[in-house]
Amino acid sequence: MAYVRRVIDDELDILLRELPAVAIEGPKAVGKTETAVQRARTVRRFDDPQQAELARADPTRATSGAPPVLLDEWQHVPATWDAVRRAVDEDPSPGRFLLTGSAAPSSPPTHSGAGRIVRLRLRPMSLAERGLCRPSVRLRDLLTGENAPLGGESVVGLGDYAEEVVASGFPAIRLFSDRARRMLLDGYLARVVDRDFGELGQQVRRPDTLRRWMMAYAASSSTTATLETIRDAATPGEADKPARSTVLVYREILERLWLLEPVPAWWPTRNRMARIAGPPKHQLADPALAARLLGVDADTLVEGGEGATAVPRDGTLLGHLFESLVTLSVRVYAQAAEAQVKHLRTKGGRQEVDLIVERPDGRAIAIEVKLSGTVSDDDVKHLVWLRDRMGRDLLDAIVVTTGPAAYRRQDGIGVVPAALLGP
Fold first, then answer.
1. Cβ 114 vs Cβ 81: under 8 Å
2. pLDDT for residue 109
């Protein structure tokens, strides 16, 4: 099977020309190894017990060989991280090491690697990487604040987006038929409960409770539901609920496995301390995992099905998982543009903006996500409010839709079909 180039490849092309070591992090099956192998001349695979044992005996041996040297799944032998750091101190020549990791190790390295090893996140495939159509609107261009005219047409419709929600952004999984894909996703989730928690030093005494909590978290996708709300949804009508400390462990381990990636809160002010207030918006790494946990397929989503577990939310499950799909894609594009993705929700929810993409200088673009092909004045009122508040610090504002064409409204707000948005 031919390698499908990812957005992160452009980042790696630039960084490896100048930096000695790059670590690629992300959940299992996201394509880290395949991406790294495209560049590596020496490969050390630490999910192979024999190679891992040799590296534990002599971590410096793992750094030998023709560069770039790939240390695949380095977290199985945490000492190799420090070995790379020392090797970089001795010889900081560019392009020497690639490291991939599917989890933060139970025993972290002695040194963070700051200044020696740069970290990049590889996420499931964005819509642009899936090749549905050629993107005509670049996030990088929106971040310039030039408010250029928008154009392009898409044949991708509501049913296609529902299919992409369940199809998965894991490269190897999305190639299969519907039934095989469902079985692979079920196996992926079973491994998380049965093996991955234990490998990170956390034994699961009640696997059914953990799985139900994951289902409830999936149902809370694109919401700011409290942990108590998620816990109650996982154990409806039960007096014996998991303790808060147990729930926090669930969340911690799933974040260490890169399977949870909540969107942090943001506030339109240059005072960065004010921006840390507010609850995050919940997101799983791949909306297909959420759909599988809830037992819904594309047809069920289009018909308005809610799945096996529900939490209080505005709108349909498809609307929330479509936002998850757009959020995943925007995060891929934002990383390439050296920007961060957050969300805005004022007190009481009077104003909400689904995604804020912020440049390092604090200026930003605002994105609303709408499961519709049309956009009304009511749909853009929060974007207009934010533009009035921020002035020139708001570089652009768009609504991402399921519609057929990209254009700019008379009020200056952009309308962009999700499939036409790219890096």
1. no
2. 61
Q: What is d(CA 124, CA 119) in angstroms, rounded to the nearest whole number?
A: 17
Q: What would the DSSP string read from start to end of 353-393?
A: EEEEEE-TTS-EEEEEE-SSS---TGGGHHHHHHHHHHGGG
Burial zone of 217 (CB within 10 Å; 0-12 exposed, 13-18 middle, 19+ buried): buried
Q: Which residue has the tokens 């533009």?
A: 387
C-alpha 104/C-alpha 122 separation (Å) is: 14
pLDDT tens for each residue of 339-353: 999 999 988 888 999
* Other CB atoms within 10 A of residue 2 CB: 4
Give, in degrees to the nearest 5, the angle at Cα 14 between 13 and 16.
70
Nearest to 268 by CA among 392, 369, 415: 392
> What is the reported pTM?
0.95
For each of the domains in the chain, give its residue range(s) and CATH number, in order of start: 7-121 (3.40.50.300), 127-422 (no CATH)
How many residues make up the chain in this entry? 423
Q: How far apart are CA 230 and CA 399, in angstroms?
A: 29
Under 8 Å between Cβ of 412 and 395 = no
**Over the stretch 89-130, which tens digit does the pLDDT of each residue have?**
999 999 999 999 999 876 666 555 667 899 999 999 999 999
What angle in degrees, to the nearest 10, is found between the helix axes of 287-294 and 317-336?
160
> Mean of the pLDDT values across residues 274-287?
85
Q: How does strand 364-369 pair with strand 352-358? A: antiparallel
**Cα 196 to Cα 200: distance, rounded to the nearest angstrom:** 6
Task: Write down the mean pLDDT value for the chain.
Answer: 94
CA separation for the pair 80, 77 (Å, rounded): 6
Please state whether the peptide bond connecting residue 135 to the residue before it is cis, i.e. omega within 30 degrees of 0. Answer: no
3-state secondary structure of 395: strand
Distance CA(167)–CA(175), nearest Å, equals 9
Residues 387/296, Cβ–Cβ less than 8 Å:
no
